[in-house]
Amino acid sequence: MRKIFKCFQINITRNFSDNMGVIFSVIIMPLVVVAAFYATNLPNNTTEKIAVIGGSEAFTQYLDKNQISYDKLKVIPEKQDIYMRNYSGVIKKQNGKVTVISYKGSQYRRELQLITKQKYRSNEEKNNSEKFPNAFYLSMSILLVQAVLNMRLFVNDRINETSKRLRVIGIKNSQYLSSHLLFNWAALFIPFGLVNVICNRLFFGSSMTEDLKVILISFIVTGLFSALAVLICTLVKDNGSAIMVGNIVACFTVLLSGMFGNFHNKILEAISQCMPQKISFNWVNEIFHHGDIVGGNFLLILIMFTVSMLMAVGLYNRSNQYSS
In degrees to the nearest 10, what's the CA dihedral of 150, 153, 154, 156? Predict the structure, then answer.
């Protein structure tokens, strides 16, 4: 353990000699977090219109009372109306059976289901603890990108064969990779966690208990992304393109997670649930809605973290054996 922390300290010193890296970590990433909270806190002025088929007079009175825009139809909207986005969903109440159709993905389907049960609350009525997961989800768009950029020290060491010299003085490959994991983890967690806590307090008026939850969430999520960055840069043997490939993977995982729009294709929607950003969001969402920290995707996150590091150590040991 002492050797791991010694390498960890050296990595910190070397990182601060790279001014551009420090600027990106200390300034850019917090700005992205602030922007995510600001965007989430903006009032929702868009009017979503739903098509209502059947339903009692009491139900339509509920829609009017809650200022939900709707049209009474006799049949499902035509394709032209769907393509033109005249309706965001359909609620069909006939013969005692309720059918919900969403044209905006699974999240909007859940909102339509709440409308049918007359338990829906508009964005203005939602409490702040329900808004945090969405802000946190947006802020994760930068997390894996920054985690990969932090691995440039590892890539430089591989080019200069630094790890071989460290093995001469008794440092194992697992200890060497663990030191890079710790450095990456700290470099992500400190600015990311701190700014999330501050923004949650400023934008949503969080309590001390919620702030502690945010610190724990940030610690675990940044650990996961740090381990994934170590695995990505270990997998890519070409030193010249390791960071570039890592950032391409990071950008694609953001897009495939559905962060910037839900998928209407079932295959893509299933893929989105496997992305680390969506896995983390579902876990955070579970915490703030049900208070269950170790439930939901918590075990899956721990498994992904462990498997990523074990695979990285195995691949690194094998590549060093071939090069010896």
Answer: 140
